[in-house]
């Protein structure tokens, strides 16, 4: 595997300047392929789910290897890496969605905020008040700072273009089928477990970068509360953000007809609209800190 630190950093710059491609997004194309494969392979079976995830993630890796082979020379490889990095990163789009939510909350338009929330997370927005909406956004920005930015950069630094593409395939499949629902509890099991494994190190790196960008309180809350979350990874990100922002995260979440009660993280007040903006700024700082680390190690 060839790794281009310059290409990864250039991809971060492209994402910051351009955001996600508005048309012909490669990740959206992968999602359409995954949907067609699901129609052919679906059964209420873990083994079918293992085959489904293996075929699609393996196919993404093979495509990455092919791209590495056609990239000529150091410059060519750096440019191809930059293009793939831009395609798989989602930090700028995450921040834009967060700011749209912040503006709706600041003007008191809860209906607009409820309509927009599904762009960030699967939580049921019906009945959420301003504090509940702000908490949902801060938690989503925290968790997705790892998923959308740090994790793809980590796997790109470890395994080059195939690492970038396989990670995004894993994360996309988890978003599509990794739910504890009657349809996907068994079929989506492999995708969800793959996502847990792929995000184990990046989530902890994200927590460490939040501490680096914000200070001691983030470290204190991360150490105390990071393992309390039912997810092996999301809690590290959310706890670090809670400490950095001085807010309290966690509580009751509703997903359709399912209710989850999560332990609280942090010692501060409930999040407000202004905290959403602060979370977006912190997420961007963490992304650039990750890029700086990659640049220093290139």
From TrEMBL:
Main location, first listed in the record: membrane
Membrane topology: Multi-pass membrane protein
InterPro entries the UniProt entry points to: Cobalamin_biosynth_CobD/CbiB
Gene Ontology MF terms in the entry: ABC-type vitamin B12 transporter activity; threonine-phosphate decarboxylase activity
Keyword Transmembrane helix: yes
A Gene Ontology cellular-component term: plasma membrane
Keyword Membrane: yes
Biological pathway: Cofactor biosynthesis; adenosylcobalamin biosynthesis
Superkingdom classification of source: Bacteria
One GO BP: cobalamin biosynthetic process
Subcellular location(s) per record: Cell membrane
Entry keywords, A to Z: Cell membrane, Cobalamin biosynthesis, Membrane, Transmembrane, Transmembrane helix
Family: Belongs to the CobD/CbiB family.
Function: Converts cobyric acid to cobinamide by the addition of aminopropanol on the F carboxylic group.
Entry-linked NCBIfam families: cobal_cbiB, PRK01209.1-4
Name listed for the protein in its UniProt record: Cobalamin biosynthesis protein CobD
Species assigned in the record: Actinomadura hallensis
Lineage, broadest ranks: Bacteria, Bacillati, Actinomycetota, Actinomycetes, Streptosporangiales
């Amino acid at each position: 595997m060839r790794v281009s630190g310059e290409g990864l950093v250039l991809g971060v710059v492209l994402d910051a300047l351009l955001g996600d491609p508005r048309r012909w997004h490669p990740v959206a194309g992968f999602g359409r392929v995954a949907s067609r494969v699901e129609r052919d392979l679906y059964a209420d079976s873990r083994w079918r789910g293992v085959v489904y995830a293996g075929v699609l993630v393996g196919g993404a890796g093979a495509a990455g290897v092919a791209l590495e082979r056609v990239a000529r020379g150091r410059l060519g490889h750096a440019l191809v890496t930059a293009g793939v990095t831009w395609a798989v990163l989602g930090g700028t789009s995450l921040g834009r969605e967060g700011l749209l939510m912040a503006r709706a909350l600041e003007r008191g338009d809860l209906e607009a905020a409820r309509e927009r929330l599904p762009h960030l997370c699967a939580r049921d927005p019906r009945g959420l008040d301003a504090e509940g909406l702000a908490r949902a956004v801060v938690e989503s920005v925290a968790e997705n700072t790892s998923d959308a930015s740090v994790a793809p950069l980590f796997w790109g630094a470890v395994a080059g273009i195939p690492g970038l593409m396989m990670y995004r395939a894993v994360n996309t499949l988890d978003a599509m089928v990794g739910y504890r629902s009657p349809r996907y509890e068994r079929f989506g099991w492999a995708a969800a477990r793959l996502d847990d494994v792929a995000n184990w190190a990046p989530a902890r790196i994200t927590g460490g970068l939040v501490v680096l960008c914000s200070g001691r309180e983030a470290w204190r809350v991360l150490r105390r509360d990071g393992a309390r979350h039912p997810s092996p990874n999301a809690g590290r990100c959310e706890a670090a953000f809670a400490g950095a922002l001085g807010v309290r995260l966690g509580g009751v979440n509703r997903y359709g007809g399912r209710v989850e009660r999560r332990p609280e993280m942090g010692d501060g007040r409930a999040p407000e609209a202004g905290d959403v903006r602060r979370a977006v700024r912190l997420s961007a700082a963490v992304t650039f800190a990750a890029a700086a680390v990659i640049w220093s190690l290139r």
